[in-house]
Automatic annotation (TrEMBL):
Origin superkingdom: Bacteria
Domain Putative zinc-finger: from-to ranges: 10-38
Entry protein name: Putative zinc-finger domain-containing protein
Family annotation (Pfam families): zf-HC2
Keywords from the named record: Membrane, Transcription, Transcription regulation, Transmembrane, Transmembrane helix
Native species: Streptomyces prasinosporus
Amino acid sequence: MTGWHASDHLVTRYADGGLPEADAWSLEKHLESCGGCALRVSRAVRATAAGPALAGIREAVLADVRGTVPAGAAPAAPPAHGPVPARSVARPAGLPVRARPWPRRWPSARPGAVRVLWALGPAVRGAWLPAVLLVAVGAVALAHGGGLANARPWLLALAPVVPVAGVALSYGPHADPMHEITAATPSAGLRLVLTRTAAVLAVSLPLLTLAGALLPSTGAPNAAAWLLPGLALTLASLALAGYVGLRAATAVTGGGWLCAVLGPVLAAPGGLTGELSERLSACLDGAPAQGGWAAAAVLCAALLAARRPAFHFLEKS
């Protein structure tokens, strides 16, 4: 927002409540870092019919901070039971009451770090993270302790779906108890979805790739062959979410991948592992296959950027 400032017309429409919701969010986000525009908006709002009410609220808040009773305010009634607090004693208007010490300022993280941790919230807790660990550790344990010599194809078949499921489980009212409040903030929308998606990818991609590298296999693609398909499927889920919602989109993309990979394998008369290795080699091995997944990822990213406004209303109901 550097170099951009709200016009007088924009400030007036915001103060009168006539600004569209998306434009109001954009202006509120700008006011977080622009004191001049914030002062202009404050003056414009105080000049409306809501000005007297806001002035009364401001006076009450400042009086509470200073430990005084606002002028003209009635003293608080004492409680029916228990000791009477010092601030409940009737005093002349404006007379300072018993001084209250300022709250102790504990060392805190930087505001940017706090916002990032708040945004990541549901993406770093819940059931999906133990599920990723279970898939990775379980595959390694079955391969080396259970005698499953060709475990890598099965891990590669499931790996692209794991980040897709993680994204679905990290955003929405089912994942975040404060989702309604979060979705109403200026930082919500695509930015918040991408932040939580990045957290999901940062955990699942290296963990599943390392597990795949530890698995013995003959004829299967290498352990990193699923990374581009996993990224493309995740971006496809986000792009489709702008039309049908996040959970429906992840069900379509994740289910489509599993049907395309496992469907022909389950219907084949031969050995499942051998058929799966051949199927994965056709989908993942070689420059043409990886180039196709890269192109799909770029296309989905472009579509996601075009559908950005739709994410202001994603999973709000």
